[in-house]
């Protein structure tokens, strides 16, 4: 016992009853973003607690508390007999002092004689240094009552909506009864079991003489009223909201509700704040445009809305992803978390339109299309695309280009650079609808997409984080790394028990990704849909794609450098035209440009986007994308180009049909 007495002396009694801090969320640079979960308690004195509860607690947990010196030898004898008979530790004899020692100093929950002896000696030391009332006060303010609640005052408030001093006999017995298994006997989730434990406590109080049998019988007839569980809001920003949601997916409730965790994220607080400022500045600027007719945020802030009505001013969202790890460097889900907690970066599923087109071209390049293959930009011919009817009206599906023109035969590359709908529909047919549906599933868009050719021009809905994460395949040469907020989690003991994976997986071939990336880089140059970024002074190597849905309801821009991929969405929560001529290049691109400029300043430099890979110098047919045959040369359809080896055709052109773009079989 001398050895265990020496072990007990190592513990700092000044920490008795101390609670772990709430879980702290850090950014990648060690800056605190906020706090989650953790202890939910308020410290009170014994005189602020109902005497019913103190009697119920002692009757249930430690009837001889005021008589022993930290160890209940009668209880020890009883449990020892049972443990010897069972040849293992099946029953403890923990006094309140021993429980306080175990919980205060995070002793192992393993039932062992070694742990029990440490508890015994530590309990004796506590008893020598504190009065009984001090020990009891530490205990009742620390004990866990389930659902993230610590301490009797907070438990009484959460379960009954009253201070601890006001608890009635039945309430006090119920709350004392859940201490041994607070999740199992939670009155929020298992009310009937909680009542049975309450009645057991009342019976014990009769045995100890604290109440009469008549009082116990009366309390048992009461259906103790328990409040509905309140849904606590623990986060105060969209980024912290995303961390909390990812944490809830990564860990069980039992691992998070006690708090005390250090959650290291990929977020960069400097970039996060700069992104929030950039989004707000540009949205406020849009609200001043001629012809803008919606409520402004300034108007809402000044006058508000009727109770229960959600903010109806212009909104936006931004996501910035580290290409190497998939780590979310910044996430903004709206303009003001206090006014609207709906996280648009995660949950606003909106039509994506043209920003989906790069995936169509990537699939087609994987399936034999070459960038120089001629594709018809003319109207679709009846029956050209199987099932090309509007599911609502049955009329032929007839996509049109944004400028209402048709340019005839054009190289496939131009269809993406100029965002031509009719060309993209035919490129999608080259890829094949089944191939496109499979690719969309691998990119995270889900596997329940409607099998329709309208998918080719972006007739699907998704959220900004998913879409931005999908775009990382282009700077990552075909590999997708799922976007994550959390890097690692460390517990109160300093042990890292969770570290997220950063390994991606291939979605398309390296060659196809590089081919698409080169075209998306052309979109940033003069004549491209995102050329305005260069006019505003952003000159780093980059690629990207604008997307403007019908009637100007949604404006997207998803773009990337070698270091980061950034997605921007702008629109109204209730879809409506934002403003006349509200193209993405006018509304979303300025936000992206400002954010990417800050990325360069903060240590995410833009490098070369065109890695050196083996190229094959080939002569292809412009109509079929296959190796040119003699007939192709005679008709003037042959051209020389260099393409990645893995994209080289498998056969020679066998002739020309009437359709200028046939599927490669």
Helix content: 25-40%
Strand content: 5-15%
**Quick check: average pLDDT?**
87
CATH topology name of the domain at 41-220, in short, is Penicillin binding protein transpeptidase fold
CATH architecture call of the domain at 41-220: Orthogonal Bundle
Instruction: Please provide the count of β strands.
Output: 18
Give the CATH H-level superfamily of the domain at 41-220. Answer: Biosynthetic peptidoglycan transglycosylase-like
Give the oligomeric state of the chains in this entry, treating copies of one chain as homo and distinct chains as hetero: single chain
Radius of gyration, whole Å: 33 Å
Task: Note the overall shape.
Answer: elongated
Q: What is the distance, rounded to the nearest whole angstrom, between the alpha carbons of the first and last residues?
A: 82 Å
Q: What structural category arises from helix and sheet content?
A: alpha+beta
Spatial arrangement of strands, main beta sheet: 2-1-3-11-12
Q: Runs with pLDDT <50, length 5+?
A: 657-665
What's the CATH class of the domain at 41-220, please? Mainly Alpha
Question: Number of helical segments?
Answer: 25
Major beta sheet, specifics?
Answer: 5 strands, mixed
Description:
The chain has 665 residues and is of the alpha+beta class. The chain has a domain at 41-220: Biosynthetic peptidoglycan transglycosylase-like (Penicillin binding protein transpeptidase fold, Orthogonal Bundle). The strands form six sheets. It has a five-stranded mixed β-sheet, with helices on one face. Strands 5-4-16-15-14 form a five-stranded antiparallel β-sheet, sandwiched between helices. It is elongated. The termini are far apart. Mean pLDDT is 87; it is low at 657-665.
């Amino acid at each position: 016992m001398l050895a265990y007495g020496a072990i007990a002396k190592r513990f700092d009694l000044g920490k008795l009853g101390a609670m772990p801090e709430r879980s702290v969320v850090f950014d990648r640079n060690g800056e605190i973003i906020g706090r989650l979960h953790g202890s939910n308690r308020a410290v009170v004195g014994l005189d602020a607690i109902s005497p019913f509860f103190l009697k119920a607690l002692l009757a249930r947990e430690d009837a001889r508390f005021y008589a022993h010196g930290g160890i209940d030898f009668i209880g020890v004898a009883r449990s020892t007999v049972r443990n010897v008979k069972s040849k293992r530790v099946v029953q403890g004899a923990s006094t309140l002092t021993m429980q306080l020692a175990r919980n205060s100093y995070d002793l192992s929950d393993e039932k062992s004689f070694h742990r029990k002896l440490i508890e015994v000696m530590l309990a004796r030391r506590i008893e020598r240094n504190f009065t009984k009332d001090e020990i009891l006060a530490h205990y009742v303010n620390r004990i866990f009552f389930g659902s993230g609640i610590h301490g009797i005052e907070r438990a009484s408030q959460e379960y009954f909506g009253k201070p601890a001093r006001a608890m009635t006999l039945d309430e006090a017995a119920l709350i004392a009864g859940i201490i041994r298994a607070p999740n199992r006997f939670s009155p929020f989730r298992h009310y009937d079991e909680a009542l049975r434990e309450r009645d057991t406590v009342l019976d014990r109080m009769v045995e100890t003489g604290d109440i009469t049998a008549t009082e116990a019988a009366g309390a048992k007839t009461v259906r103790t009223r328990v409040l509905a569980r309140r849904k606590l809001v623990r986060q105060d920003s969209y980024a912290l909201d995303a961390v909390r949601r990812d944490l809830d997916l990564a860990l069980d409730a039992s691992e998070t509700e006690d708090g005390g965790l250090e959650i290291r994220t990929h977020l960069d607080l400097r970039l996060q704040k700069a992104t929030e400022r950039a989004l707000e500045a540009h949205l406020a600027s849009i609200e001043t445009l001629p012809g803008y007719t919606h409520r402004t945020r300034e108007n809402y802030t000044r006058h508000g809305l009727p109770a229960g009505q959600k903010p109806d001013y212009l909104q936006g969202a931004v996501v910035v992803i580290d290409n190497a790890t998939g780590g979310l460097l910044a996430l903004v889900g709206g303009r003001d978390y206090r006014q609207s907690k709906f996280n648009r970066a995660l949950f606003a599923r909106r039509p994506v339109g043209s920003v989906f087109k790069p995936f169509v071209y990537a699939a087609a390049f994987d399936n034999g299309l070459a960038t120089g293959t001629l594709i018809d930009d003319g109207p679709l011919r009846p029956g050209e695309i199987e099932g090309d009817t509007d599911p609502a009206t049955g009329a032929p599906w007839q996509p049109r280009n944004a400028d209402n023109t048709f340019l005839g035969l054009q190289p496939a590359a131009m269809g993406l650079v100029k965002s031509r709908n009719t060309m993209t529909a035919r490129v999608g047919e080259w890829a094949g609808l089944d191939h496109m549906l499979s690719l969309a599933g691998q990119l995270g868009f889900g596997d329940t997409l409607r099998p329709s050719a309208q998918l080719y021009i972006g007739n699907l809905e998704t959220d900004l984080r998913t879409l931005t994460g999908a775009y990382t395949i282009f700077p990552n040469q075909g590999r997708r790394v799922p976007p994550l907020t959390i890097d690692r989690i460390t517990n109160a003991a300093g042990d890292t028990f969770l570290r997220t994976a950063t390994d991606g997986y291939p979605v398309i071939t390296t060659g196809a990704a590089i081919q698409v990336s080169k075209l998306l880089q052309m979109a940033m140059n003069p004549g491209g849909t995102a050329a305005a970024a260069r006019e505003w002074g952003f000159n780093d190597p980059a690629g990207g794609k604008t997307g403007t849905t019908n009637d100007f309801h949604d404006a997207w821009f998803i773009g990337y450098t070698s270091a980061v991929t950034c997605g921007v969405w702008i629109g109204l929560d209730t879809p409506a035209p934002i403003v006349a001529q509200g193209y993405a290049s006018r509304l979303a691109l300025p936000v992206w440009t400002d954010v990417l400029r800050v990325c360069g300043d903060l240590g995410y430099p833009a490098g070369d986007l065109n890695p050196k890979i083996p190229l094959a110098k080939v002569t292809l047919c412009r109509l079929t994308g296959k190796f040119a045959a003699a007939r192709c040369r005679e008709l003037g359809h042959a051209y020389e180009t260099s393409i990645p080896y893995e994209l080289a055709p498998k056969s020679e052109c066998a002739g020309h049909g009437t359709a200028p773009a046939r599927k490669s079989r």
